[in-house]
Amino acid sequence: MTAFARNQWYVAAYAREVGRELLGRTVLDEPILLYRTEDGQAVALSDRCVHRRFPLSQAPSRLDGDRVMCGYHGFTYGTDGRCVFVPGQQRVPRTARLAAYPVVEQDAFVWVWIGDRDPGATVPPRAPWLNSSAYTVVSGMEPIDCDYGLLVDNLMDLSHETYLHGGYIGTPEVAETPITTEVDDGAGIVHVSRHMDDAACPPFYAESTGIEGRITRWQDIEYHAPCLYLLHSRVAPAGAAAPAADGSDPEAFHVEVVYAITPSTQKTTYDFWAVARDFALDDQKVTDYLHANNHTVVMQDVDALNVLQKSLDTEKPGYQELSINIDTGGLAARRILARLAQEGETRAAAPAAGAAR
Ligand code: FES
Ligand SMILES: [Fe+2]
């Protein structure tokens, strides 16, 4: 099982999901209540009433202005988690307080910090395409019944596109073309690149770009452990000019594929997926096509990982895997995740200087 790195930022929801309705999510085994104040601030509190643990995200719990009132006996909490009302007595017990989690709203995501260390100046990594007028975005979220490490493995090795996603995004060249992997251990970032100079154009790109014939296809992965995965995808008609020194690349189509991989429990994961494109921006047909097609591709992964987790659950302890070249990026990611999880624990055990909570 992949250990949790607690003192890190995780995506709890899309910004559009957080509003004046109460939303419950479980992140790293912590039940979290999300809502927005009347002036639009996203709030993340523990989703368990301190009285008898009723979930505050569940009806008849409700918002009263910026406060949340438990639907069972009426305990009422402010945005800082402090209880401001209990029924039948004036005195509110001092310990009546919900954990309040630091929140950052950025690039269409609501990020939360679950750990007991103060995030300080730590900020979540960026995915600016999701909120940029130069891109059109399709997105969604699928829960998976698997250890989040299985989704990290899946995304770090795209050679599976040829087999699992054949006829959608996979062509023979993906599995045939070797990768290059670079690891920045200090920053916790893994880069995996695969550049195909002359490849078949899969339907995903043929339909959306209108390219007929073979393509140059670049896949440049940038994984910011633990939660954010970016795939910079570039396709252009085979033989098209490479990007210019100033970064301009007029002959190519660019797709930024973004995943937020959020561990929910040890064996459940939120798979936030988004596809941002810099072409056919106002073409609704292309938008609809990419949404439907990418959802199908995501579900192929979801189904496979559900099956894989079930199968791993029946393995004997100490079972073996066998890794090959295509796994280099995934193995690097596992090493970084293990280190982040261990660091979080060691520092949490030490007296936390400046800890907020
Ligand atoms: S469980 Fe919330 S008020 Fe009793
Ligand atoms: Fe996949």
UniProtKB/TrEMBL annotation:
Keyword Iron-sulfur on entry: yes
Domain Rieske residues, every copy: 9-112
A Pfam family per the record: VanA_C
Alphabetical keyword list: 2Fe-2S, Iron, Iron-sulfur, Metal-binding, Oxidoreductase
Matching PROSITE patterns: RIESKE
Domain of life: Bacteria
InterPro entries on file: Cholesterol_7-desaturase (IPR050584), Rieske_2Fe-2S (IPR017941), Rieske_2Fe-2S_sf (IPR036922), VanA_C_cat (IPR044043)
Protein name, entry field: Rieske 2Fe-2S domain-containing protein
Organism for this UniProt entry: Streptomyces monticola
